[in-house]
Design a protein that fits this description.
By secondary structure, this protein is mainly α. Helix content is 42%, strand content 0%. It contains 4 helices and no strands.
């Protein structure tokens, strides 16, 4: 008795081909486009929640916010970060 039947093998191969073809398709464009931002709301939130300790271009109690993209959270020398921030690996 054979270990497989040709119809079953054909279905298995056809299913694998369809799955493989679908896996190689690029995601829909709308997944790659971020939602529009609300600049005025963002500026208001920054003023309300951040400026007591931070500025964009100068250090205050906390470090300046310009150039933070790609920088590790809590990684600038000269600041006493909380234990949670110091242990963070966020970028």
């Amino acid at each position: 008795m054979p270990l497989f039947s040709w119809p079953a093998m054909w279905l298995l191969c056809a299913g694998a081909a369809v799955t493989s073809a679908n896996a190689q398709q690029a995601p829909p464009r709308e997944w790659l486009t971020p939602p529009p931002g609300d600049v005025a709301r963002g500026m208001a939130l920054y003023q309300e929640r951040c400026t007591a300790c931070h500025a964009v271009d100068s250090n205050k109690i906390g470090p300046a916010h310009r150039g933070v993209m790609g920088r590790r959270v809590g990684g600038l020398p000269g600041y006493k970060y909380s234990d949670e921030v110091a242990r963070s690996r966020l970028r």
